[in-house]
């Protein structure tokens, strides 16, 4: 069976996603779409030049929404990272004035293509934009998801691993809620060295509040160094796409629809070929439940305001 992936938005993140997919041989066909035709055609030529030196062949199509009809996965990397330059509060919503209209337009084209696969959103503010994609494409809720706190959870694992001098893959746990300032680490669900991290932290005098802030600030640390982020979020998006295409049924903290809160938010779910196969239920503390509800309320309110601003 031929594998096909679409990447919409070929900026720093989208081009890194495409490079990761092509170099890894993770798809047979890839569709690259961007409003900047010079940039997307240059990327396509550059990737084609690389094929002779790669162990895999990938068919590359440019700016053809109709080619998305039989795609397994579409990854949205639409964005305008330059809007983050003067943003002392590190609020991902500064991109919303641009992305809300862009996503509405892209959604109409995706819908017109007849696409019925799984849509992965990277575009910020991730949870609100993921909700918009579901609304405007009309795809089933379980077939639309955002990378959400998959990256933030990775940043948390990096912070914990550096503190304990271990591999980040040896840390189990999640950041939950918004991919933004209201997110939090669910420390009650984090395990390391065979024990709950709360036990290890107490024994080793580790400040979990400080580690939470380090994880939350990870993206801004990278941004201030090079004025964009790309490798971390690209790896999260490609991992999610591969999980879907291989029907792996992997537990991942992605932005998915929660009826309880009437919004998309990040919470672990089982991901496979049919999208969100099953939602996981964590035994959170009362304080964590309150944080999650507050984050959900913030996402839902901002989504409602955004749709109203578009006249829908």
From TrEMBL:
GO biological process entries: lactate metabolic process
Active site residues of this protein:
179
The segment(s) forming the Lactate/malate dehydrogenase C-terminal domain are 149-307
Please give the family membership noted in the entry: Belongs to the LDH/MDH superfamily. LDH family.
Q: Which InterPro entries match?
A: L-lactate/malate_DH, L-lactate_DH_AS, Lactate/malate_DH_C, Lactate/malate_DH_N, Lactate_DH/Glyco_Ohase_4_C, NAD(P)-bd_dom_sf
Origin: domain of life: Bacteria
Pfam hit, one: Ldh_1_C
Mind telling me which PROSITE patterns this protein's record contains? L_LDH
Give me the residues that bind NAD(+), please. Answer: 9-14, 34, 122-124
What molecular functions are annotated in GO for this chain? L-lactate dehydrogenase (NAD+) activity
Which species does the entry assign this protein to? Lentilactobacillus rapi
Listed A to Z, the keywords are: NAD, Oxidoreductase
Start and end residues of each Lactate/malate dehydrogenase N-terminal domain = 4-146
Name of the molecule in the record: L-lactate dehydrogenase
Gene symbol of the encoding locus: hicD2_1
């Amino acid at each position: 069976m031929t594998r096909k992936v679409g990447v919409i938005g070929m900026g720093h993140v989208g081009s890194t996603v495409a490079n990761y997919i092509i170099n890894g041989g993770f798809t047979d066909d890839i569709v690259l779409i961007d409003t900047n035709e010079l940039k997307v055609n240059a990327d396509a030529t550059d990737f084609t030049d690389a094929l002779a030196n790669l162990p895999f062949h990938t068919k590359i199509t440019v700016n053809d929404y109709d080619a998305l009809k039989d795609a397994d996965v579409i990854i949205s990397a639409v964005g305008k990272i330059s809007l983050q330059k003067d943003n002392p509060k590190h609020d991902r919503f500064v991109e919303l004035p641009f992305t809300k209209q862009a996503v509405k337009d892209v959604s109409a084209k995706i819908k017109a293509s007849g696409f019925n696969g799984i849509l992965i959103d990277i575009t910020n503010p991730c949870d609100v934009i993921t909700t918009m994609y579901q609304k405007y494409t009309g795809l089933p809720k379980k077939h639309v998801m955002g990378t959400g706190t998959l990256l933030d959870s990775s940043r948390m694992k990096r912070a914990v691993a550096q503190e304990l001098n271990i591999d980040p893959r040896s840390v189990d746990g999640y950041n939950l809620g918004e991919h933004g300032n209201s997110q939090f680490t669910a420390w009650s669900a984090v395990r390391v060295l065979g024990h709950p991290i709360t036990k290890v932290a107490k024994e080793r005098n580790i400040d979990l509040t400080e580690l939470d802030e380090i994880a939350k600030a990870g993206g801004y640390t990278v941004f201030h160094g090079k004025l964009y982020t790309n490798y971390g979020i690209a790896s999260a998006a490609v991992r999610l796409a591969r999980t879907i295409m291989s029907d792996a049924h992997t537990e991942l903290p992605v932005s998915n629809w929660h009826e309880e809160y009437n919004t998309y938010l990040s919470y672990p779910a089982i991901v496979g070929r049919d999208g969100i196969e099953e939602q996981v239920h964590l035994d959170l503390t009362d304080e964590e439940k309150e944080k999650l509800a507050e984050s959900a309320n913030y996402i839902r309110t901002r989504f409602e305001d955004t749709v109203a601003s578009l006249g829908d």
